[in-house]
Structures are given as structure tokens and as C-alpha cells.
Amino acid sequence: MSVLEVKDLLISFNQYTSGLKQQQLNVISNLTITLEKGEILAVVGASGSGKSLLAHAILGILPSNANVSGTLRYDGEVLTPAKQASLRGSEIALIPQSVNYLDPLMRVGNQVRTSARVENPVTAQRKVFERLHLHENVEKMYPFQLSGGMARRTLLSTAIVSGAKVIIADEPTPGLDPVVIKEAMESFRELADSGCAVMLITHDIVSALSIADKIAVFYAGTTVEIAPVENFAGDGEALRHPYSKALWRALPQNDFIPIPGAQPHPGDLPPGCLFAPRCPLATPECDRGQPEMRTLRDGMVRCIHAT
Amino acid sequence: MRKNAGVKIGSFILMKCIRMLTLLFAICLISFLLIKNSPIDPVQAYIGADMLKVGPEQRERIAEYWGLDQPVIVQFLNWGSALLKGDLGTSMIFRRPVSEIIGERFVNSVVLMLTAWVLSGVIGFVMGVVSAMKKDTWIDRIIKLYCYTLASTPTFWMGLLMLIVFAVWLGWFPIGLGVPAGVLAEDVTIADRLQHLILPALTLSVLGVANVALHTREKLIDVLASDYVMFARARGEKGFLLFWRHGLRNIALPAITLQFAAFSELFGGAVLAEQVFSYPGLGQATVEAGLRGDVPLLLGLVLFSTIFVFAGNLIADIIYYVVDPRTRESRTI
Fold it and tell me: pLDDT digits over B107-153, tens only?
């Protein structure tokens, strides 16, 4: 059974357009993913595709003007706001994007200790710091004194000391050098191997491929494909959705061919398939409503033409 | 590291002192020139009502005795060198050394200002915190309305209202002055002084809270919307604990700094409040010195208030420097 199940998630914001006219912006729509124990699911997609919002929605820390619908389940139980509040930090942990997520006026050791749930906070924090090769005087530092790699490992250690079973890492790699990225990725693999379910939100497909089990491809606030990691190989012929193929081929080490056009703005979504306006396979049928997510060859895809 | 920090703070204070000296020099020069060019005639101010009995020759001799016939720059140097020796001159109204009067008045004022300062700081801070934590609820609206109204209320008008309501109508407090009238100085009790202090102090505090409260509210709202508070929430922190750990820490510093930097407004407010309540403090002395052309006292007060306000800002800077780890601890560890 999946640890975490997200079904038909819809997140929207009300926006004032002109005067008092309100428009509903669907930033995430029809999103469905599942997370299994011991597995790393990488969520990849361009910036602005709603990846971070997904993380915040699972934790229930979206801003108050966001409207959420759809079902979230944790261990088969429906996640209500109250349930989310009790699971935050103990069962589900977030690893945020940058050092800005640490309190600038609090020593980092103390901040890590506040996350510890299982054992003595001080020993837990020291043990994790040692495991992540953080020097012992790092605990006395303030966030502004940390280097990029130290900050990354500090943030990671907050999730480890919490003993959470589901770990959501939001863009953990930008701005880091390859060695540190590799190190961070390996620690995620370790976490998954010890029984955690890891959701790795990133736009760094290459690093994600090195450790993930499954890849969910995001486009304009929804998943277009969920594929086992092995499918990302060669020319991408094993991939199902035209966008995933295009994304794969756009990588520098592959064909380096970008697809024309840009991701649609949430206020201006196409009527049917969200990718149709840029899709080489698009037919009039594609505009007749968003295709359902369907199972295809050991993966899932949201495209009527996919084979 | 420690030693390094000591050197750093030493040079920081030295720089501040140099700035203070240049500021004082500029203030001396400008206020001296302003008064020199004002319609105040020092001889007339000195003689006062007896002007008719003094002939032009005598007036000239007084002017000569004081060096008023010499060039402006020489006059300034004369005054400046006396100032450096600690001689502020003699007040023409009180016929006593200026430094003595300032000292005496300052004791009265400082009690008033300190009370108002502490009260407005603490109450304003709490109001700001409550308002931000309960943003967009009725209590936030009330606090905001109160602050906006108060922030645009003139001190003297508030003082008059206080006098009308609490002193005249209700009769709870005396109408003005610092001590009861008609009582010998040695018979005045501390309770008497306190009773005379309450209304002016209350006026100043009631007005002073608006600034701190609104700033604290804005700052806390920013902090609560920050990434690190969101992350703290994601780690399961909430309610008062969240505020205590991450909110208070990040808003206390700006609030303290603001409160020290508000010394100038406090001084300005005290001038008006003391006038309304006839409270014998520095403010009242300033108004009298200005109205009656008491040049030595006026200049002395200008210098003193400069130092007072500068000290407030300096304390704010030092606190920020010492307390904030981002300025205190260098990157090199």
C-alpha cells in the first residue's frame, strides 16, 4: 500500500483582474501521484509548473488564500488539516530549497534540535552532523555563516533527526557543485533504503535519474507522465508522453533540441490537453477536454495518442 | 576572535564619537548664526522692562562689555572657547548659570520622558504583536484604528483633552505644574510629584505607542510570512511556541532600535506636553527661552537636546551591533 496518495488535487488562487473582477487561477489541477515506502519519486518539470505548491499542499502549509480540493491520503487515512498538523515534522518532513528557510537569528544546532522527535535532541543532532560530515562547531553557527553545502546538509539533517517516514525535498540541489550534489543524492538514497518514502522535487533531471525509482513529469500544474527511471534512456523512445520525450531530448547531453513555445499561464490554460498547443502530435480531439491519466506499459500517462 | 571583535567595536565607537563632534560643531555654528541673525537684541533681552531707564550710551557700553561690537566670527570664537571650558553662560531669565538650570530641568524631564518611553515601548510592542498574530480579526482592526488615529493626533491637543477629562471634569489629577502650588519645597512628597507626573506621562505614552505598535505589527507580519517561519510550521511548530522561538527573536531588535531612535520624537513631544501641563521640564524651559530671547539658555538647550538625541541613536546602533549575530560574528570561523 502506498504511504502517500494524492488524487485529483486541485489548488487554485483567487486573483483580482480588473477592478473587483475575480479570476480563479488553477495552479495545480487533476494531479495524481503515489509514494511508496523505500522508493524515491522524482518530480521534474520546468519552474512555475507547481512543484513546490504540491509539497506545501501535502504538508498543509499553503497560504490561506489558496483553495484546495481533491484527496490526500497518508497510510490509507484521509489527510484532514488537523491530521496534517499532527503529522508535520513527525511523520512527514520537508527539506526546503535554501538557507533562507533557517531562522537567521538562531544557531543552526538549535534549529536542528527542535526537529528531533525520537531521541535526545542534542545527541540526535550531533550524530546526524557527524554522519553528514558537518564539523562540530557548525552547530554554533548562524545561518549566514554557512556555505551552500553546509546549509544543504543542515537542512537535510532537520529531516533526518525528525525520524519522518515521508520526506519531501524541494529543489535540494540548485547552486551546488557536482560533488555536493552527488553527496546529497546519496543521502536521499540512504534514507529511502532505510524505509522512508522520498519525494524529490527538482528540475535537475540528470541528478534525479541517478537515484530515483520513478519519475513524475510535471507540466502546467499537472502530471503528464509517471515513468520508471529506466525509461529515460536513449532517444526517449520508451517514454510515453510527447512532453516527457521533448524534455528528455532538450537535455544538453542528448539532442539539445528545445521545443517551441512556453508553458501556459495558469490564468490562460488551453481547453483540452494542456500540452496540445505545443504538441507535434496534436489533433482536434486533443482540444475536447483534458485526457485522463491512464496506465500504459508499467507507467501512467495523460495523452490519448500515447502508445 | 574575541579580541578582534573588541577592536571592531572600539573603532565603531570611535567613529561614532568623531561624528558626534562634527555634528555638535555644525549645530553650534548654525544655531549661533541663526540667533545672531534673528531679531533678538541681547541687550534688550538682558535689561527687560527697565529698557526705558537705560540710555543709549549705557546700552553701547553693555554691548561693548559683551563684545557685541566685534565681528561675528570673533563672537563665535569667544562663545565657543567658553563652551569648551564648560561655561554655558548665564541665563537671562533665571539669572543663574545655564548648566545649572539644564541639570535641574533635565531631572524633571527625564522622569517624565523615561516613564513615557518605557510605557509606550512595552505597551506598543505588545499591541503590535497581538495585532499581527490576530491579523484581520476585530482586535487587529481596533488596534490599527487606534494607532492611525493616535499617530495623527497632535500632542498638545491630546494633552488638553487629558486635562479637560481627568483634571477638570473628573478631578483625579492636578491641573498642571510639577509640584502642588503653595507648598514649601521641603514639604513636597514623592507622592505629590508622582501625581503631577501621571497625566503628562500618560499623554506622551498614549501617543508614543502608535509608532512602535505599527512597526512591530508590520515586521511580525513579514516574519510570519517568511520562509523560515513556513519551514518551522512544516516541522510542526505552531502557536505561541512558534512566536517565541522565531517571531520574538526577529522582531525584538528592530523594535528596540526604533524605540531608542525615537528619542528625538520623545523630546519634541515633551516640549509640547510640558507646555500644556506647565510641567517644569526642559521643554518648558526651551519655549520660555525662545519667547523671551534668553540666548545663552536657548543655545545651551539646543546643544543638550542634540547630545540627548544623538545618544539615543548611538545606543540603538550599539545594541544592534552587539546583539545581532550577523554584525557581531565575522564570517571567518
Answer: 888 888 888 889 889 999 999 999 998 888 899 999 999 999 888 88
Final residue in a domain of this structure, among A143, A163, A183: A163
Shared domain check, A135 and A196: no
Q: How far apart are CA A156 and CA B126, in angstroms?
A: 36
Which DSSP symbol is given to A293?
P
DSSP state of A264: P
Among chain A residues, the shortest Cα distance to B230 is held by: A61
| Assigned domain for A96 exists | no
Distance CA A238, CA A227 (A): 9
Spatial separation of the C-alpha atoms in residues A223 and A45, rounded to whole Å = 9
pLDDT tens-digit readout, B28-56: 889 888 888 877 777 777 776 676 777 77
CB contact under 8 A, A88 and B250: no
Nearest CA in chain A to B327: A144
Q: Which three cell numbers stand for residue A86?
A: 499532527
Contact flag B231-A141 (C-beta cutoff 8 Å): no
Answer whether B246 sits within 8 Å of A90, measured CB to CB.
no
Nearest residue of chain A to residue B245 (CA atoms): A106
- With 0-12 / 13-18 / 19 or more C-beta atoms within 10 angstroms meaning exposed / middle / buried, residue A85 is middle
Q: What CATH number should be reported for the domain whose range is B98-328?
A: 1.10.3720.10
Name every residue whose Cβ is closer than 8 Å to that of residue A81 and which is 6 or more positions away in sequence. Answer: A60
